[in-house]
Amino acid sequence: MRPGVRAASLAAMIGCGLLAVWLAACESGSGPTESGSAPVAKETNLALSAKATASSELPEFDMFHVTNVNDDQPSEWVPDRGKKIGAWVQLTWDYPVRIQRAELELRGIGDRITAGRLVFSDGGTTVPVRGTPDFATPIKVEVFPPREVKWVRFIIDAGENGSCGLREFRAFGEKVATP
Ligand SMILES: [Ca+2]
Question: How far is the CA of 74 from the centre of ligand 1 (A)?
Answer without folding.
Answer: 5
